[in-house]
Design goal:
CATH architecture: Roll
Structural class: mainly beta
CATH class: Mainly Beta
Number of helices: 0
CATH superfamily: GroES chaperonin
Strand content: 35-45%
Helix content: under 10%
Order of helices and strands: EEEEEEEE
Strand order of the largest sheet: 6-7-1-2-5-8
């Protein structure tokens, strides 16, 4: 497994739940056309880096931890495949939220 550096996070992509007809659940329409909609991704954190250092050398630890379910943007990651598992390496700044259990 890849060990992230600095403020990066290794995430395994989780596909959104769908219906038998192939509709994605949890996607509100609100009159927004699919082409106008910003799609995001959902994933499980597999590993986190040590954090980022400030100019004064203080280590700022990451706010996410291994096992968290996170949401992040569609184009904010670098994709890797290892042992058949598709993972993404993203910066903590690109995570827009953590889902509560």
């Amino acid at each position: 497994m890849i060990q992230p550096t600095s403020n990066r996070v290794l995430v395994e992509l989780i596909d959104p739940p769908t219906t038998a007809a192939g509709l994605i659940l949890g996607q509100p329409s609100f009159g927004i056309k699919p082409s106008q909609e910003q799609r995001g991704h959902r994933g499980r954190v597999l590993a986190v880096g040590p954090g980022k250092r400030t100019r004064k050398g203080v280590l700022l630890e990451l706010q996410v931890k291994t096992g968290d379910l996170v949401r992040f943007g569609e184009f904010d990651y670098k994709r890797f495949t290892e042992n058949g598992v598709s993972t993404m390496l993203i910066s903590e700044m690109d995570i827009v939220g953590v889902e509560e259990a």
